[in-house]
Amino acid sequence: MKFYSLNHPIPNTSFKEAVIAGIAPDKGLYFPESITPLPSDFFDSIEELSNHEIAFQAIRQFVSEDISDGDLKEILENTLDFDFPVVEIEENVATLELFHGPTMAFKDVGARFMANCLGYFSQNEKEEVTVLVATSGDTGGAVANGFLGVDGVNVVILYPSGKVSDIQEKQLTTLGQNIVAMEVDGTFDDCQRMVKAAFLDEEITDHRKLTSANSINVARWLPQLFYFLFAYKQAKSKGKEIVFSVPSGNFGNICAGMVAQKLGMPVQHFVASTNVNDVVPKFMQQGIYNPVPSIATISNAMDVGDPSNFVRIRHLYQDDLSTLQENLSSYAFTDDDTRAAMKEVYARTEYVMDPHGAVGYLGLKEYQKSKPNTYGIFLETAHPVKFLDVVEETLGVSPEIPAQIQKVMGKEKHSIKIKIYEDLKDYLLANN
Ligand SMILES: N[C@@H](CCOP(=O)(O)O)C(=O)O
């Protein structure tokens, strides 16, 4: 399997090269040259397969030229050692809990898979790799955890100062070793712009091998398709058409779900649910993609004004809006809507949704107004405890703090404050 750049569609890059580069030399995102559907008996008997077997069969075609079957199985065992339960909260509405991993957010799978792949590919390399990553909240902690202590890899995480939750900040600033956190005086989009500028900067790239651990990297993006297969395995017995509502920021997760659909998984429809950072809902209505600076919300991990992966989604549908609309709806919700949904669901079911999950729930309910007989699954992308203040204020309850969060809470934050791109550049040139 080769990958091509979305700016230059000639498939000439291996999985290994795409992972190590992160982004193509022409700055396009990498995309697989083909997506071959899995045999129908895979889906017929999915309930009998383990999550490891499902993941192996699903990802194998993308990586098999560079990773042997035995090594891939080992990487998947290291990556997937926690649960992904589908929890029904009302008739025809369930949530897929993606927060049972080490940093309690859905990013754990992609971050661990990529860290394992990069460690595997760097085994006999002399040159160190620097992983640059921009985070609006959850990616940073997952990448810090996944890459901690990986030989030959240094990680630099950029996050917007004051715009991530306290627990998210602890997760990405307290680990030390090969992990450095940079606190940017700006928004997530500024962080993402600085990271992309560094990739273009030959003064840096001549001296330092850079890659990305955001979902622009195929090794971070593609494993997210597992979630949808794990959910399908659990919901198949309902015998209904399945709709996924995905709280969306950088749009990597929902795009991976669409790859699972291309692999043959039966899905009736996708819903991209956003907070007021609504560039995609507007595009889906008006056909005009107009990125704008992001606005801070209580679902901060989705505060993205120019989602990196939407270009992959458009590509999957040959940039044809009406075909895309047949498979994707997109709705935006305010913080007031989000809090109201958290309250209403908690009062009725005692289920505590985090603000991102609540946005997913709202999008699903909106879609089901016209399709009430579908079986809807909204993704709970992070544990509510990561947004303790919002949950306490909104619901008046204090969720129990799990051990993996308690572990970082008492630790001291270490970050380097930066304002402009040159600050990042100086750091990368000086600390080589
Ligand atoms: N929601 C993200 C923003 C970056 O997204 P990614 O999937 O491209 O890493 C976050 O939590 O940081």
Descriptive notes:
Helix 16 (335-349) packs across helix 18. The chain is globular, with a radius of gyration of 20 Å. The longest helix has 15 residues, at 107-121. The protein has a six-stranded mixed sheet, sandwiched between helices. Strands 9-6-7-8-14 form a five-stranded parallel sheet, sandwiched between helices. The chain is α/β, with parallel strands linked by helices. The protein has a domain at 83-102 and 221-399: Rossmann fold (3-Layer(aba) Sandwich). The chain has helices at residues 15-21, 40-44, 51-63, 69-79, 107-121, 138-147, 166-173, 188-200, 202-205, 218-221, 225-235, 252-262, 279-286, 310-316, 321-327, 335-349, 355-368, 388-395, 403-409, 421-430; strands at residues 3-5, 8-13, 30-32, 86-90, 93-97, 129-134, 153-160, 179-184, 209-212, 242-247, 269-274, 328-332, 375-380, 416-418. It binds the ligand N[C@@H](CCOP(=O)(O)O)C(=O)O. It comes from Flagellimonas iocasae. It is an enzyme of class 4 (lyase). Its cofactor is pyridoxal 5'-phosphate. Residues 3-79 form the Threonine synthase N-terminal domain.
